Amino acid sequence: MIGKKVMSLLQNATKLNQIIQIHALIIKTSLDGNNFVLAKLLRRLFACSSANDLLYARSVFDEIPSPDTFIWNTMIRAYLNSQNPQESMSLFFQMRHQECIPIDSYSLSLVIQACGRLKDPGNGQKLHTQVLKIGLGSDLFVETALIEMYAKFGDIEIARNILDEMAHPDLVPYNVLLAEYVRVGEINLAHDLFDRMPERDLVSWNTMIHGHASLGDVGTAKKLFDRTCERDLISWSSMIAAYAKARQSNEALRLFHEMQLANVLPDKVTMVSVLSACGDVGALGMGKMIHECIERNRIEIDLKLGTSLVDMYAKCGDIDNSLRVFNGMNNRDVFAWSAMIMGLANHGFGELALDHFSKMISEDIKPNDVTFIGVLSACSHIGLVDEGWTYFTSMSKVYDVSPKIEHYGCVVDILGRAGRLQEAMELIKSMPFAPDAIVWRALLGACRIYKNVEIAEEATVNLLELEPHVDGNYVLLSNIYSQAKEWDKVVNVRRMMKNINIQKVPGSSSIEVDNAVHEFVAGDQSHPESKKILRMLSEITARLKANGYAPLTASVLQDFDEKEKENALAHHSEKLAIAFGLLSTAPGSTIRIVKNLRVCDDCHIAIKLISRTYKRRIIVRDRNRFHHFVNGSCSCKDYW
DNA sequence: GTAGGGTTAG
C-alpha cells in the first residue's frame, strides 16, 4: 500500500528536493530494502537532476543494503551519461567482485562503452573476449557498444565489420557508426553508410547535418536540413550552430526566429549558438532577451551557457553584465576564465584582466594558449611592455603552453604600441614562424602611431607580398605618408590601388534601437529616416566645428577637392549611426555602435567631441577592440 | 544504447 503511494509520488516528482523528501519517507517506512522502489528513486533522480546532483544519487546508492543488477546498471549508466566513464568502469569492477550479483548483457554494454570513451583497449579487448566466451556476442546492445568502442579506439574498420556481420541490426548501431565517421571527419564514408541504411530516422539526418556543418560546409548541411520532412529541436539547433560556427550570424538569428515560428522550444544548447551569433553581430538587445528567457524558464546556466553569456555581453559592449554573469557562475573552467579575460582586455580594462588571470591561477585552473592571447592583449591595450614580456616568457617556462604565432603577434603589438618599433621588427625576424599579414599589419599600425615612415615601408613590402588586395593595408600606408606630409607618396599609393584594382571592403556601422538593428555604410541614404539623419549630422558637424573640430581631410584617399573630402568624412558610417542614435534614443542613454573595420582618425576625434557636446557615453566596437567615449575622451587613450 | 553547445593576435 505504502509502496504504491511512494511509487506514485516518485512518478510526479520533478524537483530534487521533492525526491530527497520522498527518500526520507522511504527510509521512515522501511521501504529502503525494496530494490524496485529504490531503482525508481534513482531513475527519477537522474531524470530531474543535473550532473552536480549525481553525488546525492551516489549517496543513496551507497546506502542501499543489497542493490540488484538493475540498480547497479542504473548507477553505472548515470556516470556514463554525465561524462564520467572512469567511475562507470570502476563501479562495474566493484559489481563484478560481488559474486552474488549477476552481470547481464546490459552491464557489459555499459562498461564496453566506458572503455571506448576512456580509450582503454586493454580492458576493451578483454571484455570483448569475455562477451564471446559467455555467448553474448550477438546481443544487440553489446554489439552496438562494441561498434562505438572500436571506433573510439580508432579501429573504425573493425567497427564496420561488426555492423556488417550483425544478424538483425536496428537503426542504433548504424547511427552510432555514422556518428563515429562524422566525429573523425570521414564525411564520404558517412554518406555511403547513410545512403545504404535500410531506413533513416531523425538521429541519422541530424548526424549528417552536423557532419557537414562540422567541416564548415553549411551549404550541404542546409540542403539536408531542408530535405528533412520532420525537424526536432536537435535538427534546428544543429543548423543554427552550423551558421553560428561559420560566422553567418545573421542567418543563425534568422533561423532561430524561424524555429520559434515553427513552435519548437529552444533549450540551453540552442541558446549557446544563438548567443554566440548575438555576440558576433553585437546584438545586445537580442542577447539580453535570450538571457531573460533563460532566467524565466529557470534553465540551468552550465559552463558552456555561462561562457557564452559572458562572451556575448563582452562582445556586445556590456562589460558590466559580462562580469555579473561571470561572478554568478558556480564554477568556471579555462574557457570561462579566458572569455572573461579576453572581454576585459578588449574593453581596455587591462589591470582587471590581469587580476582575473592571477585569480584563475590561484584557483588552480590551468591556462591554455587562448588564455594567453587574452593576457597579452590586456598588456598591449594598456601599454604594459615589461609585464607582457614576463607573461610571454612564462608561457612555456611556467605553464607549459608553447607560444604560437598569435602570441608573437601580440608581443609585436605590445612593443609596437610602446614605440619600440625596432625591437618589434627584430622579434618578427627572429620568431620561429614565418610572419603573417597580421603581424606585419600590427607593426604597420604602430608605425602610424609613431609616424615612422622608414619601418612602415619595410613592413609594407612584406605585407603587400602576402596581401596585395586588401584595401586596409594601403589605407594604413597612405595615412602614414599623409601624416608625414609626403604627398607624392600618398598619390603613389592611390595610383597603386587603382592599378591593381583593389576591392574595397565598405565600412559599415550598426546600431540597435528597440531590438532592431540599423546598418549604415558611408554616404548611406537608404535609411527611411535618412533626411532627418543627414540634417542631424550637419547640426553635429556645425556644433563640433564651433568647439574647435577640424576635419582631418588628409586621411581621405580619394582624389577629391577639400570640400568633397570633408563631405566624405562627414558621412562615414559610424557618424551616420551615431546621428541616428542621438535622434532615436533617450537623452543621456548610452549609444552602442558596432563597426566592421577600424574607426578612422577623424571619426575618433569627432566621437570624442560628440560624447562631450551631447553628454552621451558612446561605446564603439571596432574590428579590434572597444572604445568607451565619455566626456571628450576615449578609454583607449588614443592608443589604438 | 545513437544526434546539437562555450574562449583565439590586429
* Low-confidence runs of at least 5 consecutive residues: none
- DSSP helical segment count: 34
Oligomer: single chain
Q: For the CA atoms, what is the radius of gyration? A: 30 Å
For the biggest sheet, the summary is: 6 strands, mixed
Total DSSP E strands: 6
Molecular shape = elongated
Q: Order of strands across the biggest sheet?
A: 2-1-3-4-5-6
Family: Belongs to the PPR family. PCMP-H subfamily.
Organism: Vitis vinifera (Grape)
Protein name: DYW domain-containing protein
Keywords: Repeat
Model description:
The chain is elongated. About 65% of the residues lie in helices and about 5% in strands. Among the domains are: about 1-55, no CATH class; about 70-170, Tetratricopeptide repeat domain (Serine Threonine Protein Phosphatase 5, Tetratricopeptide repeat, Alpha Horseshoe), CATH 1.25.40.10; about 265-330, no CATH class; about 405-500, Tetratricopeptide repeat domain (Serine Threonine Protein Phosphatase 5, Tetratricopeptide repeat); about 510-635, no CATH class. With about 650 residues, it is mostly helical. The chain contains 34 helices and six strands. Strand 3 (about 590-595), helix 34 (about 600-615) and strand 4 form a beta-alpha-beta unit. Helix 9 (about 140-155) packs antiparallel against helix 10 and helix 11 (about 170-185) runs parallel beside helix 13 (about 200-215). The model has no long low-confidence stretch (mean pLDDT about 90). The protein has a six-stranded mixed sheet, with helices on one face. It binds one DNA strand of 10 nucleotides through helix 7, helix 9, helix 11, helix 13 and helix 15.
